[in-house]
């Protein structure tokens, strides 16, 4: 064969990316992924395996082609602009605050919500989780953010299912059971003065007996501004506010708030709030995030009025944090796969770029990082399922559990959710950036590959649902609160069961030293040093947990082979047809 560099010039350059496109577009996220299948085999209980495996295969045929194509189309540069449009008034001077989105996102959203992920008649805990894992591979934040929020809202409402007033109960049956169509949830906590410090929320809840202009009397109404409201297209929001004229008026309560009162959605009359502005964001562009003002929106309490903070943080935000990690892990599997396949397709200096030692290390790194993120996400989520998907709201509630073994295990889950969120949100942008580099200049092209979008979106993960520092501080404080019944040393030993003793000893000693420092809030040399050590140790600790999850999977890796997949997909024209049908 003549090397390209030895060839004469040729004005009819025959170079083509077609083979890469065939492999990238032909890949079925579940059927063709041995690693994903190994995770399913390891974690799905035997009696559920056959059904879940078959449902995943069926769904994967849609997600890998139709849903992926819809997400790609929605995120074309010219379509992205359409995601951020709001029409405040109609032609007849009515305030409607209508959000207009790209039709592909709306189609995708309807089809994904119609899967009834949170409907116990249609999904068990494991099938829900693995379907979400599959869906997250397309990385469509416009749809997956409301999925995460709906999940949190359902869990919170379910906790108080027997105590909810009828309108709040209807929110649950819409979100969970699809009565009247599967509704979309959202969560509005952050305000202009701060998102990390939720207790300083100022939005008021007032109980008003008098009938309002909406015809409703004897209800709670909200007043004030929320400054970061994602999934603004949602039907319902879980909102934090301070209830006036009650003994706990300085504390946070949680409310279920419909976006429209019954019958008003079609008439475009919102539930007494205005959408003041849609934010212009670095990432998650197809997700409308708004600043809004409540002017007496009807709101239904969820849980005791003085327990909102613990419930929101312990349940709603914890579930979102699980989603950040599982979403990024799923996305990383796809990113690693597509980058590695490209490195086997692309040649430079006469050889595939995957054969350069510098690249080999980088390929191994992104592959390992993606696999351990996924293995870790499954292991953490299996703990959540072990507890029947019920999270304890806070340390106080945890301390009421008499069985010390269970109490410790629940505590480990609480801390794991935070640790995982911090670490995966930090790893993801770095891994995606590395994967972009495999494509050289093409990695930067929005229409060549979706990594630029995924990279932008991954940067958001660190900030929402509790920024890194806030979670690191929270974990540190938690350990001081439970010191009497769970030492940092024991925690590390329990968490890292199976890991070699030397590593465990080193980590547990280091962790105990950091936790024994009484506060991270003092500005002195020692605290600065401890903070630096804690940042590093938190990452090391969770990486080792992820590595152990990978070891436990006992996966005999079958490396991806571009040429083999190309042969396979060239024989498989039916997926192309699905793509064209769009
Ligand atoms: C795209 C996007 C969508 C969002 N959607 C929603 C939504 O739907 N609903 C919602 O309620 N919120 C939403 N948020 C808001 C998000 O939850 C907040 O941005 C986040 O909680 C941080 O709050 P803040 O922006 O006010 O930052 P601040 O609270 O002002 O924090 C600024 C910095 O200070 C650091 N810091 C704060 N406290 C401490 C401490 N004790 N120790 C050390 N450092 C500290 C933080 O780590 C952070 O780096 C969204 C944010 C983004 C970016």
Labels describing this entry:
binds flavin-adenine dinucleotide, 53% helix, globular, 11 strands, alpha+beta, five-stranded mixed β-barrel, 19 helices, single chain, 582 residues
Give a structural overview.
By secondary structure, the protein is an alpha+beta fold. Helices cover 53% and strands 12% of the residues. It has 19 helices and eleven strands. The strands form three sheets. Strands 4-5-9-7-6 form a five-stranded mixed beta barrel. β10 and β11 (351-352) form a beta hairpin. α6 crosses α9 (308-345). The protein is globular. The structure holds flavin-adenine dinucleotide (FAD). Flavin-adenine dinucleotide is lined by residues 187-190, 194-196, 228-230, 281, 284, 289, 460, 463-464, 467-470, 473.
Low-confidence blocks of residues: none
Bound molecules: flavin-adenine dinucleotide
Q: Biggest β-sheet: count, sense, barrel?
A: 5 strands, mixed, barrel
Neighbour order of strands in the largest sheet: 4-5-9-7-6
Give a short overview.
The protein has 19 helices and eleven strands.
Topology:
Elements: H1 18-26, H2 34-43, H3 46-74, H4 77-80, E1 85-89, E2 95-100, H5 103-113, H6 125-136, H7 141-159, H8 166-177, E3 185-188, E4 204-208, E5 219-229, E6 236-243, E7 253-258, E8 273-278, E9 290-301, H9 308-345, E10 347-348, E11 351-352, H10 357-386, H11 395-398, H12 404-438, H13 451-461, H14 468-481, H15 488-495, H16 501-516, H17 525-553, H18 562-570, H19 574-581
Parallel strand pairs: 3-6, 4-6
Antiparallel strand pairs: 1-2, 4-5, 5-9, 6-7, 7-9, 8-9, 10-11
Helix pairs in contact: 1-9, 1-18, 3-5, 3-6, 3-19, 5-7, 6-9, 7-8, 7-9, 9-10, 9-12, 9-13, 10-12, 10-17, 12-13, 12-14, 12-17, 15-16, 16-17
Bound molecules: flavin-adenine dinucleotide (FAD).
Residues 187-190, 194-196, 228-230, 281, 284, 289, 460, 463-464, 467-470, 473 line the site of flavin-adenine dinucleotide.
């Amino acid at each position: 064969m003549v090397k390209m560099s030895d060839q004469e010039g040729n004005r009819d350059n025959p170079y083509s990316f077609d083979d890469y496109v065939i492999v990238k577009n032909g890949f079925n996220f579940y059927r063709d992924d041995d690693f994903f299948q190994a995770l399913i085999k390891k974690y799905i209980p035997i009696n559920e395996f056959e059904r879940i495996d078959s449902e995943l295969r069926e769904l994967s045929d849609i997600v890998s082609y139709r849903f992926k194509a819809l997400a790609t189309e929605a995120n074309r540069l010219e379509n992205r602009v359409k995601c951020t449009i709001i029409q405040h008034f109609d032609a007849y001077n009515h305030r409607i605050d209508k959000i207009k989105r790209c039709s592909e996102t709306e189609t995708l959203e309807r089809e994904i919500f119609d899967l009834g992920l949170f409907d116990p008649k249609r999904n068990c805990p494991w099938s829900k989780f693995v379907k979400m894992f599959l869906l997250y591979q397309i990385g469509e934040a416009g749809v997956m953010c409301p999925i995460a929020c709906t999940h949190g809202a359902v869990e919170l409402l379910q906790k108080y299912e027997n105590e909810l007033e009828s309108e709040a109960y209807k929110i649950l049956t819409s979100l969970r059971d699809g009565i009247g169509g599967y509704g979309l949830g959202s969560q509005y906590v952050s305000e202009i003065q701060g998102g990390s410090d939720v207790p300083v929320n100022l939005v008021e809840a007032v109980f008003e007996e008098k009938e309002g202009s909406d015809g409703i009397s004897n209800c709670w109404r909200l007043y004030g501004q929320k400054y970061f409201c994602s999934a603004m297209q949602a039907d319902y929001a879980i909102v934090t506010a301070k209830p006036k004229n009650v003994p706990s008026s300085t504390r946070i309560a949680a409310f279920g708030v419909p976006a429209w009162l019954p019958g008003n959605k079609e008439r475009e009359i919102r539930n007494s709030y205005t959408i003041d502005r849609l934010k212009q964001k670095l990432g998650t562009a197809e997700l409308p995030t708004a600043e809004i003002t409540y002017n007496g929106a009807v709101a239904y309490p969820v849980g005791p009025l003085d327990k909102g903070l613990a419930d929101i943080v312990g349940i709603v935000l914890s579930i979102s944090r699980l989603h950040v990690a599982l979403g990024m892990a799923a996305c990383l599997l796809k990113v690693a796969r597509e980058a590695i396949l490209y490195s086997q397709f692309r040649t430079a200096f006469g050889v595939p770029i995957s054969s350069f030692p510098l690249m080999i290390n980088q390929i191994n790194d992104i592959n390992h990082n993606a696999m351990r993120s996924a293995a870790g996400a499954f292991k953490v989520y299996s703990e959540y399922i072990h507890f029947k998907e019920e999270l304890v709201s806070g340390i106080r509630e945890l301390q009421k559990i008499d069985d010390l073994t269970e109490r410790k295990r629940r505590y480990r889950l609480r801390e794991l959710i935070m640790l995982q969120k911090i670490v995966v949100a930090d790893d993801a942008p770095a891994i995606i950036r590395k994967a972009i580099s495999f494509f050289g200049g093409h990695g930067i092209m929005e229409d060549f590959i979706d990594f630029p979008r995924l990279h932008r979106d991954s940067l958001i993960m660190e900030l929402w649902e509790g920024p890194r520092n806030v979670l690191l501080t929270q974990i540190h404080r938690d350990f001081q609160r439970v010191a009497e019944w769970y030492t940092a040393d024991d925690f590390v030993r329990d968490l890292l069961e199976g890991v070699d003793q030397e590593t465990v000893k080193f980590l547990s000693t280091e962790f105990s030293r950091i936790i024994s420092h009484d506060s991270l809030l003092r500005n002195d040399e020692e605290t600065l040093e401890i903070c630096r050590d804690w940042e590093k140790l938190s990452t090391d600790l969770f990486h080792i947990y992820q590595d152990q999850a990978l070891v436990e999977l006992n996966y005999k890796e079958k490396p991806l082979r571009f040429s083999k997949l190309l042969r396979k997909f060239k024989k498989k024209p039916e997926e192309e047809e699905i793509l064209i049908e769009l």
